[in-house]
Amino acid sequence: MDVKMKKVKTTRPPDDILKQIEERDKDCVYCHGPFIKGDNNASATVEHLNHRKDWDSVGCYIAEGKDVSKIVARCCHACNSSRSDKSLLEWFKTPYCTSKKIKIKYDTVAAVVRDYIDAYEK
Ligand SMILES: [Zn+2]
To answer: What is the domain partition of the chain in residue ranges?
Structure first.
């Protein structure tokens, strides 16, 4: 495959990838709550699975010809702000994840999140 190498500094995935992600992640990839437009907690947000603030993962992925949809997902506003910049495995240990009725952990999150953890956090 011929991949054009260009340095793209962006944290926003391209529109076609965003569309793919929208079709894949019908509810929150973490708590599986339904997305509710305009709701402070349940509205859909674009989540970057990587937690390194200094690493422009989307731009790097595009430049390296990698699949951006593997490091970006959709989650609810509440999960996104709770996780903030923690690594996923670190975040799973916080009260937000452990005290929920449906606990948020490796076994309960969407496949895209598990794949990311397998690749980068294990
Ligand atoms: Zn959620």
So the answer is: 15-120
